[in-house]
Amino acid sequence: MSTAPKPIALPVTAVTCLEDRAHIERTAVLDLKAGGQRLRLGPVSALAVDRTLHAELTADHPATVLDVRIVRSWTPRGPLPSTGDSALRRRVHALEEEQVALGLRRDRLRARVDLLGRLAADLLREIGEGSGSGESEGPRWARELDRVDDERDAHGEELRTVEARLATLAAQLGEARRAMDLSEEESAELVGHVELTVETTVAGPVGLRLSHLTPCALWRPAYRAVLDGDSLTLETDAMVWQRTGEDWSDVRLTLSTARSARATDPPRLGEDRLTLKDRSAAERRTIDVELREEEIGDLGPAPVLGLPGVDDGGEARVLRSPAPVSVPGDGRAHRVPLTVFTTAASSEYACSPEVSPLVTQVVRFDNLSGHVLLAGPVDLVRGSLFSGRGTLDFTAPGAPVELPFGSCDDHRVARHAEESRGSAGITQRTVVTRTVRLHLSRFSAFGEHGERVVVLRERIPVSEVSAVEIRLHKDSCSPAPDVVDAEGIARWDVPLPPGSHRTVTLVYELSAGAPRSPGCERCATARLPTGRRCARGHATRAHDAAPVGSPSLPRQPRAGTPVDGGGSCLPVRLRIPELLGPHADALAEELDEDVTLTVPDQHGSHFVHSSKRDRWMCIVCGIGDRLPLDASAPGALLAAIWSSDEWERHHAEHHCVRGRGTLRRVRMTFANVPPPPDPMAGPSTTSGWNRA
């Protein structure tokens, strides 16, 4: 075994900079002798992580690494030569003596300037008194005033020179004293060396590759966007900080978003219990309407408070410097260029007055860099002028990018909102009408031509419950929105010539009423009480509540009703609800009233479809229920075309009717029921039309 008397240099050749540390790679060529040897390499950073130290030998003959470790020691800094110390002390002494002399000179000059000032004041007083008593010594007074002014100017200039020299001496004396303190201080520094034990059978050169992790190094992405007309140039850089105790000179720099300190095991999942309970009667009758601000969900990394990390979208990303770089270990930020590309860009002048009254130029382009654009700050340059700094979000290769380039100072937007409340009809639905007026103006310089399209966006609430409805009054809007998306964002493309102004009006209505009854569990074609079935035979949800005013007990079908309990009566099997149901729903929506479809069944009528509206009180009839013709409005309409023989047979077979005046009384209640045919007047003239 032999020990090298002098450490072998082991320079840094490659660096992989991670989010909060660096992976250092060092290479060297060793001239080994046959047998086992222990080598001392370095110096290296004392911050190197021991457990990440890895050494590898490459040679044409067998060579093995037996052991590798880092040995740290406190090495005092070497003192400066005695001649340097003596010269430094002599310089400090000379500066102190000069400072004292200049201080005395400054005091004498200040006294001299004050004396000349008092002399000038006495001379002026003498001139005033002599002029008042009739004496005239103009030449003498002029000579004395000139002499006093010249001396005051000369001594004042000399005083300013002395004060400037004193300030310079104070700075030089401070630096000299700090240098002397450092030269006399015997502080030590921690230095690390690598002890490598190798064994080889043949003497000769061997290549060594040694790697380890080191803290106190990090990087973050940074960008520079230059907009020139319809083209945009995006430069991708890396800001690198490192204070590892050694400089990186001409190294191959690789930038990675891998987090080596984060655990790779997935987090343990906890139990999440969901419990359902029936609503009380008071909860069914009450609707709480509130506005909630909700950010539209989007894919991508979640924002991080404080100093952000490198957002890589959940996948480790690797970027490489195209050329070797040098990063000093001074702890300051150093900019390393990575990639640059130029692409076509489109601009849009957008404004959301509810958020900000500024009109912002938004530039859209595609990511043609060939790699992902990590989230980071971007310097914005419009033409040759720096316009500010923005933020670039995480963007995949080839994906579109939106980059705001700052606001336009020649645009002004004012927003005024009005709100009125009321109730609608006997339903007592609360109606809130909101009117939003947007005033947009453009101030242009003299000689500017061409109109500019400004995109205005205003938000309309979106309802999450059926009892709350949002309705846009397009007739009252001026102009009507060009587009209203699913998130309730209304958009206008407003052209603005130079020096013009426009007003955009948005009117929408928010109404809330009683909660609707539960609907079909599968097809949602009818809203029925609990336990009933829809026109297609689908059962409603068991936990849904019946509407206010409906019977609390389930209804039983009447005797003779051709329904099997599942709603599969003959009209349903003939697809009458399926074919006519959508038309009934549309009519109910247009009239805001209940609309039902009924079919005659001898001397009764069957419900086959019902389109319900929100009401505080309503009469609930299940699909398939049979009602007598002379006791319901649908029955009266269906019986309007009966002949006298059919009426006689009806009264003979149904003794529970309320008399011949029933139909007439029904008609008096429902004014739209046509009059019954007169038995003495012969055939009805409307019979053929009604039957058709």
Large-scale geometry: flat
Tell me about the largest β-sheet. 7 strands, mixed
Proportion in β-strands: 25-35%
Structural class: alpha+beta
What's the N-to-C terminus distance?
117 Å
Quaternary state, please?
A: single chain
Percent of residues in helices: 10-25%
CA radius of gyration is 47 Å
Stretches where pLDDT is under 50 for at least 5 consecutive residues are 79-84, 297-301, 303-307, 516-568, 656-674, 679-692
Structure explained in plain terms:
The protein has 692 residues and is of the alpha+beta class. Helix content is 22%, strand content 34%. The chain contains nine helices and 28 strands. The protein has helices at residues 82-133, 138-184, 281-285, 570-573, 576-591, 633-638, 644-653, 662-669, 687-691; strands at 12-17, 22-32, 35-44, 54-58, 63-76, 188-200, 204-214, 217-228, 231-242, 248-256, 318-320, 325-327, 334-344, 346-351, 360-366, 376-382, 385-392, 400-407, 411-424, 429-442, 452-459, 468-472, 483-484, 489-496, 501-512, 595-601, 604-611, 626-628. Strands 1, 2, 4, 7, 10, 11 and 12 form a seven-stranded mixed β-sheet that branches. It has a six-stranded mixed β-sheet with strand order 18-15-14-21-24-23, with no helix packed on it. Strands 13-9-8-16-17 form a five-stranded mixed β-sheet, with no helix packed on it. β23 and β24 form a beta hairpin. α1 runs antiparallel to α2. It is flat, with a radius of gyration of 47 Å. 21% of the residues are buried. Residues 79-84, 297-301, 303-307, 516-568, 656-674 and 679-692 have low confidence and may be disordered.
